[in-house]
Amino acid sequence: MRPIDVGCLEKSTVFFYTAGETAKQTFFYPLCVGHYYCTDQYLVQRNNYNSFLLIYVKKGEGFLEVNQKKYTFHAEDVILVDCYKPHIYGTTKDSEILWFHFDGSSSREYVYMIMNNTGPVCSVRDLITFEKDLNRILLMISNESTVNDALCSYYIVKILTDILLCSTKLQKEEHTHSIIEDIISFINNNTSSKLSLEDLACRAGLSPFYFTRLFKKETGYTPHEYIIVSRINIAKFYLKSSTYSIKEICFNSGFSSESSFCSTFRRVCNMTPSEYRENNNIS
Fold first, then answer.
1. Burial of 39 (0-12, 13-18, 19+ CB in 10 A)
2. 74-83, 123-132, 228-237: which range is least confident on average?
3. What φ, ψ does residue 74 adopt, rounded to 5°?
4. What share of the chain is helix, strand, coil (3-state, %, to 5)?
5. Rounded CA gap, 230 and 191, in Å?
6. What is the band of 126 on the pLDDT scale with cuts at 50, 70, 90?
7. CA-CA distance, 164 to 162, in Å (whole number)?
8. Long-range contacts of 66-73 (CB under 8 A, 24+ apart)
9. What angle (nearest 5°) sits at the alpha carbon of residue 169, between those of residues 61 and 81?
10. I need a surface site. Which of 11, 127, 140, 205 has the fewest CB within 10 A?
11. What is the mean pLDDT of residues 202-228?
């Protein structure tokens, strides 16, 4: 194992692999793989490295400079780099990244098909499966005697295909709308139930971080804000159309306590539930 880059903590690992000529002519193949724990000083600057690079940012954030353009990346982003060209990248806060350099007869076409859709900073839908596939490659290369070139190529292509499908704009938008519509419908039908961010993200098949970002982009609200608005709207309906007590309306609307309900209602509506009922002529 060769020394790791400056700016990585001691528990970081990197493994190198030399594929045979048959594998190079036939498959996508890795050159090296790593799992880095980086400081905010991690920096790589190269004129070329004769390969393509995929980085998955498990946590943290950083930047990439290629073709005289600068891109920022954050947790759960995927970065693709054409290392045949000059490039600079690094982390701007303590970060954890999984990565591998790879090549193959059609690597350039595959990578540029993705980049033409999204640029070098990409997203994936199923982060759990994506990370498992990355770890499978890392595990195989860490024990070079057990490397199966065909299987390794399969996981590289699978990873790139997942990114490509997610980067296809029309499919991505349709899939996004479908996910958020399902979650909105679920929230509206279950406002009186406990609705945690983790449960909603799990239902969407996304990480809480990516789900929150996607939900806000589609609706203008965070999931928590949307749940509050939905519960307040239901409370308004009860206040206008029923003779339920404030306490009954509180629990029927999904609030955990009367004091929380009243303070939230006042913050959102600039009046108390009782004032709202009185203004809407409910006796």
1. middle
2. 123-132
3. -135, 180
4. 50, 20, 30
5. 7
6. confident
7. 5
8. 66/120, 71/119, 71/120, 71/121, 72/121, 73/121
9. 40
10. 11
11. 89
The residue count for the chain: 283
Cβ–Cβ < 8 Å for 143, 16: no
Residue partners of 148: CB distance under 8 A and separation at least 6 = 140
- The pLDDT score that the predictor gives to residue 171 is 54
Q: What is the DSSP string of 146-214?
A: G--HHHHHHHHHHHHHHHHHHH-HHHHHHHHHHHHHHHHHHHHH-TTS---HHHHHHHHTS-HHHHHHH
Dihedral sign for Cα atoms in the order 28, 31, 32, 38: negative
Count Cα neighbours of 23 within 13 Å in the Cβ-side half-sphere.
Answer: 18
Is the Cβ–Cβ distance between 163 and 204 less than 8 Å? no
Backbone φ and ψ for 27, nearest 5 degrees, come out as: -115, 170
H helix or E strand, kind and range, residue 274: helix 273-279
Rounded mean pLDDT, 273-282: 82
Instruction: Report the C-alpha gap between 91 and 166 in whole angstroms.
Output: 25
Alpha carbons 22 and 1: distance in angstroms, whole number = 24
- In angstroms, rounded to a whole number, what is the distance separating the alpha carbons of residues 81 and 46? 12
Please determine, for residue 256, whether its predicted confidence score (pLDDT) is greater than 60. Answer: yes
